[in-house]
Write a structure and sequence with these properties.
about 290 residues; alpha+beta; Glutaredoxin; Glutathione S-transferase Yfyf (Class Pi), Chain A, domain 2; 3 domains; four-stranded mixed beta sheet; three-stranded antiparallel beta sheet; 11 helices; about 40% helix; about 10% strand; globular; Glutathione-S-Trfase_C_sf; Glutathione_S-Trfase_N
Length: about 290
Amino acid sequence: MTYELFLGDRTFSSWSLRGWLMFEKFDLPVRVKMVGLYSGTMAQDLLPLAPARLVPVMRTPEGDPLQDTLAMAETLAERHPDAGLWPADPSQRIFARWLTAEMHSGFMALRGACPMNLGKAYKGFAPSQEVRADLARIEQLWTTARERFQTEGPWLFGAYSVADVFYAPIAARIAGYGLPVGKAAQDYVATHLADPAFRRWRAEGLTNSYDPEPYAMDLETVAWPGPAPLAARAVAKGPSENAMCPYSGNPVTDFLEVEGRVFGFCNSNCRDKTANDPEAFPAFMDIYHS
């Protein structure tokens, strides 16, 4: 019972991030396919999923296509009631849906002025009054969720839920543009940036290059504010400590050095995504710690 998930881009597509997190964080079986969001082939790539025209799109195991992350969230929750997409408590679930729906339809000033960019962080961005108003509203919603329910755990309702899925790109924007928010909001943003799933998504996105770069801004860039990755670099040859790729199980052909140790992978993409953030990939860290 495996779904198909059609995504546009990992570095810039906030909607694609939301779609992927719904499968990754709730352990739902999925095969990911990338479409040409920036190469100009997206319309052609999505023809088999008509009338879909935007990413992400999921296709159910029965073959039904579905566009729009809010519709996807409700469908997946309906089909997988034990996966925990929404909080179990009815009052929490009501407010989680509220927060999610407001994110889905709102905060246009923030989203327009600060496109998601997981490839770099900017210094010196000056938010408009409209952006500041969006940030104040977001902080109000986040604070209300935490104070009203007093749940254990770092997420909006204690355990990770669809509400956190939808606010992951907002966290990325706050971090990437250095937007002014209070301490509690900063802590919540840092929780997203440190989340292994978020880090895996970003590490894979960093394997791509763009010419021209979408949404480039004439601002000074600074180091990404998330956890500093282990230092790693591609090397031309082994031998490696492992004979098989940690992801595919295939023989190694490409090599990576981490803190003086050499590890092998079955192709350059497996190597390069790992080089971007080794600790984001549990399968690699199992080898690293063995």
